[in-house]
Write a structure and sequence with these properties.
8-stranded antiparallel sheet, single chain, mainly beta, 5-stranded antiparallel sheet, about 220 residues, Jelly Rolls, 3 helices, about 15% helix, 2 domains
């Protein structure tokens, strides 16, 4: 029994090492060490590290973000949502305590596919998972069931954003072509034309988890 346990531990260590090494391939660089918030800013006290993942504490929130800024980039990550879970990816966020959906280039929604059923709330199509919040709606149907890890890749180049969820393109848009007079609630988006900024997570009180987060610069 002791021998079997030692073998399992060794295999687990090996698997972690291979995963960590793989993150360095193809120009991607890990931006979260799986242990603490070194390299991150914002209200990190509202988040915690659970089994190597960034998790927003229940009832807490705010946008945490990388200390580094990015212009054009590709980010790869895995995420897992609880029932009705809500979070967001801060794209070209200016930092500080501002609303990433409006002051940043955009907030890409991270949302439980069954949010409307769980929360008994009606969503605008531009609020569903993967959408450029309030501006452009993403396609539905590619997210895995609650409790399972999803893989997502986001490419930000110039004014364009492409989101691939579990191998399916759910958003491919050019924000410079969005008619800001037709956006949700006709909200102003002063940050939509930003050319660089921080990457982060916009927590909304739910324990949404993120892991294996890496970025490749394109500029």
């Amino acid at each position: 029994m002791k021998h079997k346990l030692s073998t399992l531990l060794a295999l687990a260590t090996c698997a972690f090492t291979l995963t960590a090494a793989d993150k360095g391939k193809d120009g991607f660089k890990s931006i979260f060490n799986g242990k603490d918030f070194d390299g991150w800013a914002g209200p990190v006290e509202n988040y915690e590290v659970v089994e190597g993942a960034v998790v927003c504490k229940k009832g807490k929130g705010g946008t945490i973000y990388t200390k580094e800024e990015y212009g054009d980039f590709v980010v790869r990550l895995e995420f897992k949502v609880p029932p009705g879970g809500n979070n967001g990816l801060a794209i070209r966020y200016p930092g500080g305590n501002v609303n990433t959906a409006y002051e940043g280039m955009c907030e890409l929604q991270v949302l439980d596919e069954d949010y409307e059923t769980v929360r008994k709330a009606k969503l605008d199509p531009r609020q569903v998972h993967g959408s450029a919040y309030g501006m452009v709606a993403a396609k539905r149907g590619a997210q895995k069931p609650v409790g399972e890890w999803n893989h997502q890749e986001v490419t930000v180049k110039g004014s364009t954003i492409k989101v691939v969820l579990n191998g399916t393109v759910i958003l491919d848009t050019d924000l410079s072509k969005v008619d800001l007079e037709t956006v949700m609630a006709k909200s102003k988006h002063p940050g939509v034309s930003r050319t660089k900024g921080h990457f982060g997570f916009a927590g909304h009180s739910d324990p949404v988890a993120f892991r294996n987060i890496s970025i490749k610069r394109l500029d």
